[in-house]
Amino acid sequence: QVQVVESGGGLVQPGGSLRLSCAASGNIFRIYSMNWYRQAPGKQRELVASITSGGSTNYADSVKGRFTISRDNAKNTVYLQMNSLKPEDTAVYYCNTRGAYSDLKVFGSWGQGTQVTVSS
Predict the structure, then answer these.
(1) DSSP character for 102?
(2) DSSP class of residue 87?
(3) Average pLDDT by consecutive 10-residue portion of the chain (120 residues)?
(4) Beta partners for 12?
(5) Helix (H, G, I), strand (E, B) or coil at 1
(6) Bridge partner residues of 58 (DSSP)
């Protein structure tokens, strides 16, 4: 089993910054990708940013140039630096980790989510 724990959410004014962290632990043989999703009230969950073990990144158009995803492979940790935050970035942010257990079976695990609120 794999545990995924996010941290770093909170309340910030428009134009401000926040840094989210997500750590994966447990029976992990390899992590293929670590991903940030978000879900605003009344909306579907959407992919915000992703990063592979090799460092390739992908961003939603709405956050390009403002958000940066990075990871520490040794710690099985991913970060999301969010700058120039807008009210429309308000959502619960979820971390998703995809990889393989020690028996090479694949997994996809979610964290519990962390609230980000952008408001004056």
Answers:
(1) T
(2) G
(3) 94 98 94 97 97 96 98 95 98 97 91 97
(4) 118
(5) coil
(6) 50
β-pairing verdict for 114-118 and 10-12 = parallel
H, E, C per residue of 15-73: CCCEEEEEEEEECCCEEEEEEEEEECCCCCCEEEEEEECCCCEEECCCCCCCEEEEEEH
Dist. CA 61–CA 1, nearest whole Å: 33
Phi and psi at residue 74, in whole multiples of 5°?
A: -65, -30
Among 48, 50, 26, smallest CA distance to 37 is for: 48
Helix (H, G, I), strand (E, B) or coil at 74: helix
pLDDT at residue number 33? 96
Residue 102 has a pLDDT of 85
Q: 43, 22, 44, 41: which is closest to 110 by C-alpha?
A: 22
